[in-house]
């Protein structure tokens, strides 16, 4: 596992995280490690998603620690590029991480499901 990955994420859970991000088009999101770190430190993020294929992995190593301290659920997905695509970013763009600040009504059910799934993984 990479330096920033604190638990294994099964493919079906990663797929549900992608679905949640895709369904949250009207919700407020922050993209990139600097913005995500700020939302985590402020405690304003409702959920944080990190890509496993980040290089160097130390770029995100501090985020799980902040999340644990602030009680923010977080999850992992395999691909930066696919994460960016699901977040509505242009093709070819990558993002190491996303923070969901507001969950839209259309994504609320998926959000609740993902939070429960990652709670079981991170224990």
Task: Describe the secondary-structure layout.
Elements: H1 11-23, E1 29-31, H2 33-42, E2 47-51, H3 63-70, E3 74-77, H4 80-86, E4 97-100, H5 108-122
Helix pairs in contact: 1-5, 2-3
What would you say this structure looks like, in words?
It is a single chain. With 123 residues, this protein is α+β, with helices and mostly antiparallel strands. It has one domain: Ribosomal protein L30/S12 (60s Ribosomal Protein L30, Chain: A, 2-Layer Sandwich). 43% of the residues lie in helices and 13% in strands. It has 5 helices and 4 strands. The protein has a 4-stranded mixed beta sheet, with helices on both faces. The longest helix is centred in the last third of the chain and has 15 residues. It is globular, with a radius of gyration of 13 Å. The chain starts with 10 loop residues before the first helix and ends with a helix. The relative contact order is 0.27. The model has no long low-confidence stretch (mean pLDDT 89).
Rg measurement, Å:
13 Å
* Shape annotation: globular
What CATH calls the topology is: 60s Ribosomal Protein L30, Chain: A
CATH architecture: 2-Layer Sandwich
State the CATH superfamily name.
Ribosomal protein L30/S12
Number of domains: 1
> What profile does the largest beta sheet have?
4 strands, mixed
Overall average pLDDT: 89
Number of helices: 5
**In the CATH hierarchy, what is the class?**
Alpha Beta
The span between the termini is 17 Å
Unreliable stretches (pLDDT < 50, length at least 5) are none
């Amino acid at each position: 596992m990479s330096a920033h990955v604190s638990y294994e994420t099964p493919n079906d859970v990663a797929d549900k995280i992608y679905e949640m991000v895709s369904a949250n088009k009207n919700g407020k999101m922050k993209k990139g490690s600097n913005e995500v770190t700020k939302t985590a430190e402020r405690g304003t993020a409702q959920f944080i998603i990190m890509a496993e294929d980040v290089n160097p992995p130390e770029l995100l190593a501090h985020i799980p620690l902040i999340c644990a301290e602030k009680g923010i659920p977080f999850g992992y997905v395999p691909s930066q590029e696919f994460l960016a695509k699901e977040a509505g970013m242009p093709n070819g763009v990558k993002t190491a991480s996303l923070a969901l600040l507001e969950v839209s009504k259309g994504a609320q059910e998926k959000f609740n499901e993902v939070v429960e799934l990652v709670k079981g993984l991170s224990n």
